[in-house]
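DM from R.C. (forwarded with permission)

"hey, sorry to bug you on a friday — could you get me a structure for this? deadline for the figure draft is monday and I only need the backbone to look sensible"
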Amino acid sequence: GLVPNGADHLEAIKPDDTVLDLHGLRGQRFLLAVGSDNPTKNHAALLSAFARMTDEPGLRLVMVGGRHAEVFAETSHHEPPGVTRVGEVADAQLKALYAHALALVFPSLYEGFGLPPLEAMACGCAVAASRAASLPEVCGEAALYFDPLDVDDMVATLQRLCGDGALRAALRKAGTQHVAAYTWAASAAALLDSRTIQDLSGDAA
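My reply, with the result:
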């Protein structure tokens, strides 16, 4: 299959802001989460953290992505107020959500690569991500990190992000610079390079 190698695929797409009106998000402060409801995405912890952010009245959490029926059954009754699930969206709508969100929150426990943080950066959106798996490597210095297994840490990080406009601006700037290095071509070359290294280490073993 195709490895998601870069974040420049959204560049040519014009954002579709109608998604904001469709879900009552225009003029609202919201955090964005993007990904399926696969347990490794750690959305249950994010929902717990969001429920505790009581000093941010009116803050919304917008969740983009598919849902598994069995997970849906478990989580639907516990969903805190302020959560908006928009399901699968077209790239143009996703781009509008990235552009208007306070930040993308990516609480994943495991990611092979982790494309949404780079997509968000490419769209000028601040990123808060797990200090887990490949994410610190992928996001570098351009994201604010939290421990995905520590809801307290997640709450503190998100409150800091929501309360500090200068921090969000700094993250947006850092993200824009960081993501410029992640073109499809550069990432494809890096991927080939890493495969070569794996092949060599495989031979050694």
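R.C.: lifesaver. The beta strands are 30-34, 60-64, 83-87, 103-106, 127-130, 144-146.
me: no worries. Residues 1-5 have pLDDT under 50 and may be disordered.
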